[in-house]
Amino acid sequence: MTPKAFQYIIIALALTLVAVGIAQAHEVRPGYLQISQVDALNYDLLWKIPAKGDQRLGLYVRLPGHCRNSKATSSFAGGAYIERWRAACEGGLEDGTIAIDGLEATRTDVLARVEHSNGRTQTVRLTPSQPEFKVMASVGPAAVIRTYFNLGVEHILLGFDHLLFVLALMFLVEGWRRLAATITAFTIAHSLTLAAATFGWVQVSQAPVEAVIALSIMFVALEILHRHQGRTGIATRKPWIVAFVFGLLHGLGFAGALREIGLPSDAIPLALAFFNVGVEAGQLLFVAAVFLFFRFVNQLMGRLGAAAERSYLSGAAVTRPASYVIGTLAAFWLIERTYGFFV
Description:
The chain is built from nine helices and eleven strands. The protein is α+β, with helices and mostly antiparallel strands. Strands 1, 2, 3, 5, 6, 7, 9 and 10 form an eight-stranded mixed sheet that branches.
């Protein structure tokens, strides 16, 4: 096998991993448990877990032993199984332990949110290694910081459309300084609209936002091809402007996810800030992983005696097939999300 052929195999494997990750995204969707206190005795529960067709994950809520559940109503909607019921807990839920049975045998997480009648909230992230939590009357800032930072990291690392946009920018922009300026512009923009939407200053329907996010990825993928054809548009000349404009849209997408999670009423600025910090930490981890991977490819090609590109992130052997893969995925999302307007 020639070094050149081996190079294309490495590239094909990398692109295959991206596609497999996207295909498996629905398998690691988190569950959501909302517990709302009605009075000193009663609590309304909403339990939402991933489903495929009429098949649901085998996850079940276990309340403290002194709670009695009413008959639940259930339905399948939007790729999820949803249950609603009321629980009567003599003496309330404070200091009681709530568990998700079956979680330890899955790869998913569960976001649990307890809303007390006094307006205080508790939000925790349950994992296969930690499938239960203790209900607390009040939650300290450290718990809020930890929970929302982890949620931010998880959201960006499972947000394949956002990551593909960042990856496309990395293929488009040459030079560390220009790339740093571009990523910074993207960060500032989505931070602004995330905050604006969270505080209710901007209200936009989520479905069109998600469709335009897919369109933004297609645009950058097309600009990568244009650059190799010698046709330089604004995305090549001033990529930070394009990153900022589309970053505003991506921030609205982040806000939609945060709206579903909810924010603790007594610590909204803190939770919002650390959710955003978590998003940025996840984004930096992704950028670092991409650079480390292509650095490994450069070194491997050098050892095999191949004519090494100055950077495989800008070399046509990588960026052309990558732009086709990115653009095709974005086109699929655009069609899927646009179709969702009418069903």
